Amino acid sequence: MALATLAVVVPILLVLVTIFVRGYQAINWEFLTAMPRDGMKAGGIFPAIVGTIILIFATGLAAIPVGVGGAIYLSEYARDNWATRTIRLAMINLAGIPSVVYGLFGLGMFVLFLRFGTSIVSGALTLAIMTLPIIISTSEEALRAVPVEFRTVSASVGGTRWQGIRYVVLPQALPGIITGVILGLLRAAGETAPILFTVAAFYLPRLPRSPFDQTMALPYHLYVISTQVPGMPPQIQYGTAFVLLLIVLTFSLTATLIRSFFRRRRQW
Fold it and tell me: According to the model, what pLDDT value does residue 5 have?
């Protein structure tokens, strides 16, 4: 088990160290706050940073209510029959679909059919659909892990089913729900294929002005400067990867602290 752990952890640490060593040299105030110029070979990556953060929050706004609500229904209200078993099987299958397929779906549904165009709305909805299986599955497991005695005591003192869920079950399941939400959003933060078809701009040295505007995003920007722009300085490529990694780690650390806070308050 120790050897298996090392086989997984060591390559990850090597990647992180390489990105840090080769990327921190590019990090300065201009790189983080300036607009790109000279074909993205100079200036900064500020629009890509802002676009990535906007997409993460917009994805969460669309996915969290639906995902947690679906998990509550499947765990607390739905009966165990062929319909619910089919839904759970569908979620397992959806979680394994390549992200490029979600991108093509978003292109057909939101960009073309609903005519949202290549915009933040289209990208966020596509990423939300991609993250829903993760959020629903992990949230449902967290709800089912709460002992049935909590529900029984709530009902015995006259509480309705929804009151028991809202005031008893959900607070106890919150650490697991937060874990699922963060796993889904972190996956969305690093995806390139879905935003390639629905929202990402190749070069846009300004901030979006409305939800129906395009925006730059760090994953796609990293792909572009690594493969599509000849003569790109390597330090800019590694610096962009380093900033994306910092954003992901910041969200993950924040979620870990919130989860630890609620876990300390858990009564079982």
Answer: 92
| Amino acid present at 158 | G
Alpha-carbon distance of 88 to 101, in angstroms, equals 20
Total structural domains in the chain? 1
Mean pLDDT of 188-199: 90
Chain position carrying tokens 């969200």: 251
Rounded to the nearest 10°, the torsion over CA 154, 158, 162, 167 is -50
Q: What is the average per-residue pLDDT within 205-224? A: 91
> With contact defined as beta carbons under 8 Å apart, do 199 and 215 qualify?
yes
Domain assignment present for 10: no
Rounded CA separation 132/126 (Å): 10
The whole-angstrom separation of Cα 80 and Cα 61 is 29
pLDDT of residue 268: 61
Cα gap 176→100, rounded to integer Å: 28
Residue 152 lies in a domain: yes
Full domain range(s) for residue 113: 46-264
258 within domain boundaries: yes
Specify if 260 maps to a domain: yes
Query: What's the token pair of residue 17?
Result: 């160290």
% helix, strand, coil for the chain, step of 5: 75, 0, 20
User: Domain containing 218 — which CATH number?
Assistant: 1.10.3720.10
Give SS3 for 260: helix
Place of tokens 């879905």: 194
